Amino acid sequence: MIAALRFSTPRASGGRVVREARFVRRSGLPLSAACLVANGVREHLSSSLGRAFETSVIDPVVLDQRAARALFSGATVYRVRGRLCDAFTVLRSDDALRLAALAFGETERAEGEMSPVERLTLDRLLALLPPLCVPLCGEVRSVATETPERASAESAAYFEVRLSPVAVAFGFAMSIDPSEVAVPALALEDLRDLEMECTVECARGTIDVDALARLSAGETLALQTPLGGGGTLCVSGVPIAYGTCGARGERAAFAIA
Question: How many CB atoms lie within 10 A of CB 13?
Answer without folding.
Answer: 9
